[in-house]
Design brief:
The complex is a heterodimer. Helices cover 74% and strands 1% of the residues of chain A. Chain A is an all-alpha fold. Chain B has helices at 2-10, 15-18, 42-51, 105-116, 153-160, 174-177, 181-184, 229-237, 249-254, 294-302, 306-314, 343-352, 382-396, 409-417, 437-441, 459-469, 474-491; strands at residues 22-27, 56-57, 71-72, 75-80, 86-91, 131-138, 141-146, 192-198, 202-207, 220-225, 243-244, 261-266, 271-276, 318-320, 365-366, 369-370, 372-378, 401-407, 423-428, 494-500, 502-507, 510-511, 528-529. The chains are: A mainly alpha, B alpha+beta.
């Protein structure tokens, strides 16, 4: 057990190292530098941008930059963001909580809704409710995410004015209630997109197990339909769904770019999108470090959860 | 009483009623810094120039020659020496930094030292080369020394230079100033002080009640950021924001559905051009195989109906470009003849240059080479992308093939810096003065890292610009620069495409004065807002 844990840890560290190294190099292969967006003016010439590159060491060989960056990271310094004009650590410390809030609410609501929809479809397999839900989730899954987000924003924010348009807090200092009001539209959009994905996976998992022997035995022993569902069918079908959730977790950390941009949510997705466009190397690499770590941790957590839920997987 | 009732009906605000009001500005980009010496972009200037005052403010005519029209700010008055090589600025004794310390002459001196210090990496450091030094005559008198007379002496020292609180930055090394905590939360001298800067979210400023120029008529100003411009527009339409500096033509059309929001037009300081690279993009010492030829550039210019192009992009909210200047600049001359739109003449010129169309060809060739090139366009600019498509069609009509190469802005700028392009659609926002002309179009900008993107070189132009920039009267400057502009327009190193007319969106509760083309925010501290929303009652 101890050896397996060490192997897993080393494997995880290897994955993080490879992803971060690749991101570090690829970001610098893109044309441009972090000073492009702050110098579009006739009085500002290329020589000035070159001087800035020298001042901040971006003209050094890639390897030298990487070694310097690694040393700084080990000291807890993630560098400076020239697009946000603050240390990267400070920028991420501001953005991460907002993304975690958005993602956790969206994942919880979307997860429960998706599993409920998928279960409902499976229980009434072939019926009109199954077909209607299946068609609806297929349509929603097919519409580009950004279209769904924009439609939600225009309808509920601009036209009906039920919720604020963008941002995470208002100007009136409203506290938790204020944050909740701002959270509704982006979280609902993201939850909807999570739900339609999960519903389809979960229905398929439930249908695959519908003719299993243990369910046949349960039915033969006279258990109620709901008891069979809650005690036998759902726990056995949940494993593949949890695996999908495990994949979604890290995506929700940085993959919420479109929702964060459309709703001006000041989270990690916005940070990453802006940093890539601004060639803000330090931010891009730091986000890669953070998201890869999240992938590794989420993967381990899901494996542990699956093992707890399904004893058969513990021996694997 | 009747007046108050009338104001209430009209939704306007008296200055007193406005003093608790919040003005919310929706915009798409955060400042690159809050210290004016590091800021060049509009969004950053709008904020940093509320935090910091200059020695003097430019007049409504935007004259930059001498001190005509300039109004006192931190300097309550100034004196020229008899030989015009010194200007003594007498500071307003009531002026205070936001921490309560008085503004002193040493703050003016320190500002120049920092801007000129290469370690500070201030982007416009080269502009200040004309000021030798600033000496402290007494605590309230700073004297700027110049090595030679120039028409923009006063503009440089009195307008472009922002004093900094020497006492607050004493411990910060010049090479750390840009990334220092002070740069994010500075102590300024302007009518507003910083409350908070939440990254990717907002910047909040609060009025300085005891400001030496009088309390602002607004209680606070909040810049709300959204990287998607559409979010900013929706905030304005939904009443969550009070002002947005630029609306696109489709947004202006949609404005009719929102009676509580109105359009406010004002002249622009932006112009866009198609720059022809006169040098080979690979072997920079060689002329460009196509655009090294003046006659070819002129022929291609004749192929473009710029009037139609401006109308297609902006309807009535834009005009064809005139040359390397905008109409709002004090020295602008709208009577200089342009190369006319004349497709027949364009075709004839191309024929005469040996670029011929074969019987079944749609693209001209000469010596087996096609008349074809690629044009860089930043993907972030919808207007420039649309302009590229219109140009492509116009050139095709005369037998030339232009391919469009869309790049994100950082990539676009990298290629532009390296001069690795045939042609590029470039947007410029010049300073009010003519001082940057030699750098952008003269031989001075041809050096490596210079700003003469088209690598345009003309002795006639250089001489005329040099004379114009150094003319000591606005009338003389205009006359001399006209000669320079006639030369460059005839040489066609670029096609001057369009100059948009800005349209801002403003909520009707905001009384917006006439907006200055180079700085809509110039009188922000005097704007009034009818305080009637929950956000207007927040006190801090």
């Amino acid at each position: 057990m101890g050896r397996a844990a060490v192997v897993r840890l080393l494997h995880a560290l290897g994955v993080i190292a490879v992803v971060v190294t690749l991101t570090f190099a690829l970001a610098r292969l893109l044309p441009g530098d972090p000073f492009a967006s702050i110098a579009d003016h006739p009085s500002v010439d290329a020589a000035w941008r070159a001087r800035l590159r020298t001042t901040y060491g971006f003209d050094e060989p890639l390897l030298a930059q990487f070694v310097r960056w690694c040393g700084a990271v080990l000291r807890g310094d993630l560098g400076y963001s020239f697009s946000a004009q603050r240390p990267v650590r400070e920028l991420l410390a501001h953005a991460l909580p907002w993304t975690l809030l958005l993602s956790s609410v969206a994942l919880t609501v979307g997860g429960v809704l998706g599993i409920a929809l998928g279960s409902g479809q499976a229980v009434r397999r072939g019926g009109w409710a199954d077909r209607l839900t299946g068609s609806t989730t297929l349509v929603l899954a097919s519409i580009p995410d950004v279209v769904v987000a924009t439609a939600v924003l225009v309808l509920f924010g601009q036209r009906l004015r039920w919720f604020p348009i963008g941002g995470a807090t208002g100007l009136d200092g409203g506290g938790a209630g204020d944050v909740a009001r701002h959270l509704v539209l982006p979280a609902a959009t993201l939850a909807l997109l999570v739900a339609v994905t999960l519903a389809r996976f979960h229905r398929a998992a439930m249908v695959r197990g519908a003719d299993a022997d243990y369910l046949l035995a349960a039915r033969a022993s006279g258990l109620s339909r709901w008891r069979i569902f809650w005690r036998h069918a759902l726990p056995n079908a949940i494993a593949p769904t949890l695996t999908v959730i495990g994949v979604l977790l890290p995506i929700l950390l940085t993959g919420t770019i479109f929702v964060e941009k459309v709703f001006a949510w000041p989270g990690m997705g916005s940070v990453l999108a802006n940093a890539v466009l601004a060639r803000d190397y330090h931010v891009v690499t730091a986000v890669a470090l953070l998201s890869t770590t999240a992938v590794v941790v989420a993967s381990a957590a899901i494996d542990a959860l699956l093992a707890w839920l399904d004893p058969r997987t513990r021996a694997r | 009483m009747r007046l108050l009732a009338l104001l209430a009906v009209l939704g306007c605000a008296s200055p007193d009623a406005s003093r608790t009001a919040t003005l919310v500005v929706a915009t798409s980009a955060e400042p690159s810094s809050l210290l004016p010496m590091f800021v060049t972009e509009t969004q950053g200037r709008a904020v940093s120039e509320q935090l910091f005052d200059r020695l003097s403010e430019i007049g409504p005519g935007l004259n930059t020659v001498g001190d005509a029209g300039f109004a006192p700010r931190l300097a309550e008055r100034w004196e020229w020496s008899a030989d015009s090589l010194r200007i003594a600025f007498h500071l307003d004794p009531r002026a205070r930094w936001h921490d309560g310390q008085p503004v002193r002459a040493i703050d003016v001196q320190r500002a120049l030292q920092l801007v000129k210090d290469s370690r500070t990496t201030a982007p416009q450091a080269s502009d200040f080369g004309a000021i030798d030094s600033i000496s402290v005559t007494d605590s309230l008198t700073a004297t700027a020394w110049f090595s030679r007379r120039s028409p923009q002496q006063f503009y440089l020292a009195g307008y472009l230079l922002f004093p900094v609180p020497a006492h607050a930055i004493a411990g910060i090394a010049p090479d750390s100033l840009r990334t220092s905590a002070f740069a994010r939360a500075p102590i300024g001298s302007g009518p507003f002080t910083l409350v908070s800067w939440l990254p990717q979210d907002r910047i909040e400023l609060r009025a300085v009640a005891d400001h030496y120029r009088g309390a602002p008529t607004l209680g606070r100003v909040v810049w709300q950021y959204a990287s998607e411009a559409s979010v900013s527009v929706r905030r304005l339409f939904a009443g969550e924001a009070d002002f947005m500096e630029t609306l696109s033509p489709p947004d202006v059309a949609e404005l009719a559905k929102y009676p509580e929001v109105r359009a406010v037009g004002y002249p622009s300081f932006d112009y866009t051009l198609l720059a022809f690279n006169a040098r080979d993009p690979v072997r920079h010492t060689q002329p460009h195989p196509l655009f090294g030829d003046r006659a070819l550039r002129r022929a291609l210019t004749m192929a473009v109906d710029r009037q139609q192009l401006a109308r297609a992009l902006f309807d009535s909210l834009g005009a064809p470009g005139l040359g390397p200047f905008v109409r709002a600049q004090a020295f602008a001359d709208t009577t200089i003849p342009a190369i006319p739109f004349d497709v027949v003449a364009a075709r004839a010129t191309l024929d005469s240059l040996g670029w011929r169309l074969g019987a079944n060809d749609s693209i001209r060739t000469r010596g087996g080479k096609r008349l074809a090139w690629s044009t860089l366009v930043p993907a972030s600019s919808k207007n420039r992308q649309k302009a590229a498509l219109i140009l492509q069609a116009a050139f095709k009509a005369v037998g030339a093939e232009m391919t469009i190469e869309g790049l994100d802005f950082a990539g676009f700028l990298a290629r532009q810096d390296a001069r690795r392009f045939d042609a590029a659609i470039v947007g410029w926002r010049p300073n009010a003065g003519a001082v940057s002309l030699p750098q952008t179009w003269g031989r001075a900008g041809l050096r490596p890292g210079g700003n003469n993107l088209a690598s345009y070189a003309s002795d006639t132009f250089d001489a005329a610009v040099d004379s114009g920039v150094n003319a000591l009267s606005p009338v003389e400057q205009r006359r001399l620069l006209r000669r320079a502009f006639e030369t460059i327009i005839a040489d066609a190193p670029a096609i001057w495409l369009y100059e948009p007319r800005n349209v801002a969106g403003a909520h009707r509760r905001v009384a917006v004065p006439a907006l200055r083309p180079d700085a809509w925010w110039a009188d922000l501290s005097r704007w009034t807002v009818a305080a009637r929303l929950p956000r207007d009652t927040v006190t801090r």
